[in-house]
Design brief:
Blueprint lengths: L2 H29 L4 E15 L4 E15 L6 E12 L3 E12 H4 L4 E10 L12 E8 L4 E10 L7 E11 H4 L26
Antiparallel strand pairs: 1-2, 1-8, 2-3, 3-4, 4-5, 5-6, 6-7, 7-8
Length: 202
């Protein structure tokens, strides 16, 4: 091979390699599916049953949740959630839950989410139950707001069963920002919502 041909083929190879690399990057970015994500916190009010004294105790509550789910473009979104709820004067529950939500909820608009999971409860010598099943139904509103009603009951460990109720008002920072699209766009348009913009919510 002459030096001239070698010099000619080297730029061609670099060009083909560059085109191939660019093609892989473009295809990968298009194929990547964005996930739904949640990061919420807020105050609330709770009733928790003292199983020894057979009485209900009242407590102010503060909840924090972090989770991810399937594509926000779908009519239904499913994912997992870590939640920590403090009942002031009583103790703190830490738990994991699965979440099913409407796509509009995930996109930061009106919608509903249902959480079902198990909590770790080790406070007050187990008088308020241990390892309770935890449920929370959240009505999602625009601007990241959520209004939740939940219950804690039974015990997956076979110990003392819990019985409690909680109502919370949450602000979801991700539904307010990166996930948001829909009815609030006319007031504050999100230029690039996670999962891509859809013309109309199903």
């Amino acid at each position: 091979m002459t030096p001239l041909k070698a010099c000619y083929r080297q730029p061609v190879r670099r060009y083909l390699f560059g085109v191939l690399a660019l093609d892989v990057l473009v295809v990968s970015s298009q194929a990547r599916a964005d996930v739904s994500s949640w990061l919420s916190m807020g105050p609330g009010y709770a009733l928790q049953s003292n199983r020894v004294a057979s009485s209900f105790d009242q407590a102010a509550a503060l909840t924090f949740a972090l989770g991810v789910g399937s594509s926000p473009r779908a009519p239904w979104v499913f994912g997992g959630l870590f939640r920590c709820t403090t009942y002031f004067g009583l103790g703190t529950d830490v738990g994991l839950a699965v979440r099913g939500a409407t796509g509009s909820f995930a996109r930061g608009d009106w919608g509903v989410a249902l959480d079902l999971g198990v909590g770790l409860r080790g406070w007050r010598d187990g008088n308020y139950g241990s390892y309770p099943v935890q449920t929370l139904v959240t009505l999602g509103a625009p601007w990241g707001l959520g209004f939740g009603l939940g219950a804690q009951f039974a015990s997956v460990s076979g110990g003392t069963g819990a019985l409690g109720f909680v109502a919370v008002v949450e602000m979801d920072l991700l539904r307010l920002t990166v996930m948001r699209q829909g009815s609030t766009d006319s007031y504050w348009r999100n230029p690039s919502p996670a999962g891509g913009r859809i013309p109309k919510d199903p």
